[in-house]
Amino acid sequence: MLSIKNLKAGIAGKEILKGINLEVKAGEVHAIMGPNGSGKSTLSNVLAGREDYDVSDGQVLFNKKNLLEMPPEDRAREGLFLAFQYPVEIPGVSNINFLKTALSEIRQYKGLPPLDTKEFLKLVKEKQALVEMQGSLANRSVNEGFSGGEKKRNEIFQMAMLEPTLAVLDETDSGLDIDALRIVANGVNMLRAKNRAFVVITHYQRLLDYIVPDFVHVLYNGRIVKSGTKELAMELEEKGYEWIKELAPAV
Amino acid sequence: MNATVEKIKTGDKFAELFDRLHTQLPGNASIQSIRKNAIAAFLKQGIPTRKNEEYKYSLPEKLFKTNYSLATKLPSLQITADDSKTFDISGITQNKIVLINGFYSQQLSSVNNLTKGVIVSDISTSFEKHAAHIEKHFAKYANVDADPFIALNSALNANGLFIFVPENTVVEQPIHIINIITANELSLIQPRNLFIIEKNAEIKIIESLDAYKLSTNVVVNMVTEISVAEQSKVQYYKLQNDCEKIAQINTTQVYQLENSHFDTNTVTLNGDWVRNNLNIVVDAENCETHLNGLFISKNNQHIDNHTLVDHQKPNCQSNQLYKGVLSGKSTGVFNGKIYVRRDAQKINAYQSSKNILLSDDATINTKPELEIYADDVKCSHGSSTGQLNEDALFYLRARGLSTDSAKRMLLYAFASDAINTIRIDVLKEHIDKLIEKQLIQ
After folding, report:
1. Among A4, A7, A103, B116, fewest CB within 10 Å belongs to which?
2. A112 touching chain B per CB within 8 A
3. Which of A51, A72, A105 sits opposite B405 (nearest CB)?
4. Which of B391, B399, B414 minimises the CB distance to A162?
5. A84 lies within 8 A of chain B by CB
6. Is residue A213 part of a domain?
């Protein structure tokens, strides 16, 4: 589904990703862990298509299409979803209108007619229940005045609405208390499916107690220095990131 | 009155013109003396130049470089009822007043079931017919020495609208004034309006300005005086749309008395060259004043909003929010002046101007001016100018919205603050649609 080969990218002339290789297949959950500054957020931003980042080398195929050539909206329409680490507050834009427009444009891209209001509202209700989100939040401006937990829940709610084939969760656990973490993870778990893959980016192992990954990769200094299964996450939790640094190739 | 076509140019041409023409313009002796006084005030001030601080970003000089004819009568051009309907606001049909170049069109207007005592009439006949009201209020608020365009209008206005709402009277249905501007030669059109809202009365007025078969450029210099008496509530909405080829100087002069409310929105969506002067004198206690404005400009358009809130008495509040979206090479000005006079304690006066520039060539000049002579007041002002929020744009696109629809959504959200205060639902919907249309281009 997602195939990243030798991806090198940076921002403002500084190279941050120094050759990433990653294969993600449908149905899999991959966790990417790493200390601060290792390039986790750069990877998610490059995948989603943020224009501030420059890709200097490498290739990313998403369902066999060249992802890096697509504008952000086409990536979303092709089925990629980024749950933001810092969801943006957009005063004056209602959550519901925004999602309705997003869904219509995605459906149009796929040659489907827009949902009628009744179908749409039914979907909203169903997916809100999934993340235990209050109805009033959906009617408010996008993320405006939301607590940290509400913002993250809103990300998962949007993910549930848009039904992507690949979801990248960028530090979705940051700033969450244990209850919010459980709710968010629960939402993700309910969306796990054979035809859907997840890339869960996190600093801490904690989230992986709730979202159990098939594979764990350690990102350090712009490269994946170690890959393994969920036991690797436990090991990191125990030993910290120090020992991983020794695995990194000398610069 | 004779058909009058007068070529005018700046300076002493106006003096000559006035000498020849003033006796043909409507009004009894006291109106004539107002006219004489006004032309003297105009000649003293002249058309503002770059040296005039009030007009330095909006130079009207260039508008007066060519010859204009002064519109002093109803144009001969026929406007059919069907044509005039294109300027309707759907849902507002009961009280519709059509003014063609400031002249009341009996045939196109429909005013039904007005409460007893309410007067809606053209101002030229009101000069005589309602002389007592005119004597008391006409030209009592718009000061000819304060602005040359007030002076020019006061000297040479040919017609306009008169509205009178008696004490304890609520006009339930909004009154929609449709100003249709039409001409086939360069013209100076000077409507003059007077709205008198007596004690404990209420009215909602929507005023729109549209061009019709306008084959040439025109200058519209409109002055509207609004007297808002004790306990009265006035909503006044100004919609400036379809105004290509119209250069307009639009002065609204408001006078508020005790416990009155005056709420106004100025929405400018398609102006060529627009200068709005909105001056409010709050001359009594416990008044509320809300001023909101929105403009969307493109190409070479120029939109200038000047506001003045003059707090002369204590315990009042005023609020201003002006928003602008500028693209192309368009230019905008917001100049907001707040006076708080020495004895006007406990005043809350707020002002905010926010603008988005969508192109490198668009410019905005914002200037708050607070002059506060009382010591126990709360006043604030803020202004911001920026581009669309890139993070928000990316967020929306990352959910599948095209750049265009994401931009439109963000711009609408930005603009909506300034129109959410509109309390006539059908008007709000009408403006929403116009904005949407404007943002699609």
Report:
1. B116
2. no
3. A105
4. B399
5. yes
6. yes
Q: Which tokens is B87 given?
A: 């300027």
| Antiparallel, parallel or unpaired: β A90-94 and A80-83 | unpaired
C-alpha distance across the termini of chain A, in Å: 32
Residues of A with Cβ-Cβ distance to B386 under 8 angstroms: none
Spatial distance between the Cα atoms of A80 and A71, rounded to a whole number of angstroms: 12
- A192: domain CATH number is 3.40.50.300
In A, which residues are within 8 Å of B400 by CB distance? Answer: 73, 76-77, 102-103, 105-106, 109, 162
- Cβ(B135)–Cβ(B186) below 8 Å: no
Minimal C-alpha gap between A105 and chain B (Å): 6
Facing B400 at nearest CB: one of A51, A91, A105:
A105
Instruction: With beta carbons less than 8 A apart as the criterion, state whether B346 and B375 touch.
Output: no
Report if residue A73 sits inside a domain. Answer: yes
Q: Which two tokens stand for residue A160?
A: 């549930």
Contact B401 A158 (CB under 8 A): no
| Phi, psi of B120, deg, nearest 5 | -130, 115
Q: Which distant-in-sequence residues (6+ apart) come within 8 Å of B168 by Cβ?
A: B199, B200, B201
- Using an 8 Å Cβ cutoff, are B381 and B352 in contact? yes
Say if A45 falls within a structural domain. yes
Number of domains observed in the structure of chain A: 1
- For B177, which DSSP code? E
E-strand ranges in chain A read: 2-11, 14-24, 29-33, 53-62, 65-66, 80-83, 90-94, 141-142, 166-170, 197-202, 215-220, 223-228
B78 CB-near residues (< 8 Å, 6+ apart): none
**Position of tokens 């827009």?**
A114
> Pick from A127, A98, A116, A168: which is nearest to B401 by CA?
A98
Predicted confidence (pLDDT) per residue in A6-60, tens digit: 999 999 999 999 999 999 999 999 999 988 889 999 999 999 999 999 999 999 9
B413·A92 Cβ contact <8 A: yes
Per-residue 3-state assignment (H helix, E strand, C coil) for B350-412: EEEEEEEECCCCCEEEEEEEEEECCCCCEEEEEEEEECCCHHHHHHHHCCCCCHHHHHHHHHH
Q: Are B325 and B358 in contact (CB under 8 A)?
A: yes
Structural domain harbouring A210: 2-245
Q: Would the ipTM clear 0.85, i.e. be above it?
A: yes
Query: Which token pair is B348?
Result: 């809350």
The C-alpha of A43 sits at a distance from chain B's nearest C-alpha, in angstroms, of: 15
Task: Round to whole Å and give the CA distance between A18 and A75.
Answer: 23
Strands (E), B48-137: 68-70, 95-100, 103-104, 110-111, 119-122
d(CA B306, CA B336): 6
Residues facing residue B383 across a β-bridge = B353
> Does A7 map to a domain?
yes
Sign of CA dihedral B404, B410, B414, B415: positive
Q: What is the pLDDT along chain B (441 residues), one digit of tens a residue?
A: 333 445 555 556 788 889 888 888 999 999 999 999 999 999 999 889 888 889 999 988 888 877 778 877 777 778 888 888 899 999 998 899 999 999 999 999 998 778 889 999 999 999 999 999 999 999 999 999 999 999 999 999 999 999 999 999 999 999 999 999 998 888 899 999 999 999 999 999 999 999 998 888 899 999 999 999 999 999 999 999 988 889 999 999 999 999 999 999 999 998 899 999 999 999 999 999 999 999 999 999 999 999 999 999 999 999 999 999 999 999 999 999 999 999 999 999 999 999 999 999 999 999 999 999 999 999 999 999 999 999 999 999 999 999 999 999 999 999 998 999 999 999 999 999 999 888 876
